[in-house]
TrEMBL record:
GO terms for cellular component: axon; plasma membrane. This is Ig-like domain-containing protein. One of its GO terms (biological process) is homophilic cell adhesion via plasma membrane adhesion molecules. Transmembrane segments: none annotated. It comes from Rhamnusium bicolor. Residues 1-67 form the Ig-like domain.
Amino acid sequence: MKYYWIKNGKPFAWQTYDDRISQQTGRGTLSISKPSDVDLGQYQCFAENQYGIATSNSVFMRKAELNSFKTSQPISLTGNEGEPFNLTCQPPDGWPKPIVHWIYFYTNGGFKTINSSRMTLDPEGNLWFSNLTKGDVTENFMYACAATSPTKYEYKYGNRVLLNVISTGVSASQNKHEPVLQYVTRKNEVAYRGKRAEMYCIFGGT
């Protein structure tokens, strides 16, 4: 059996490279020990014998990366107690697509992932409060959007927010608000067979 490769539509002579690239004995599999930018591209393997030629699916090698947030300066926002609210995230570009979440970023440098039944993350990375409480005021922390790379095991944070909540002067039991639609999945959504699909319906109110 004879194996050979093409890269970006042209014959790929991996033997002419340094010892970073090797082919498994008796198989067509290539091993790249120290990938670099020169290795990026589209690859396809061919296997040939006296009966014919078989080809593999094309494989596109991309560089895993996670860029930084465009802005890192904190901003101050104000909301009213009991009312719905949202924090906007502008996550950085990256490959694979970064995983986005929000954290409490403390003044001592520590952080904790936000986990509250009043707060919901939409697929664009924005954080929705069903209603604000006095406990949401930033005293020894800021809200921050964080992006994590699923392959590089690193994270970046940005869109830091200092939040002030204006008190209504009435008890929570009296401070009621009707339900309001905050976010819903668009009407025409594409789902792929065998893949996970999520439909969002986020409401605010008390």
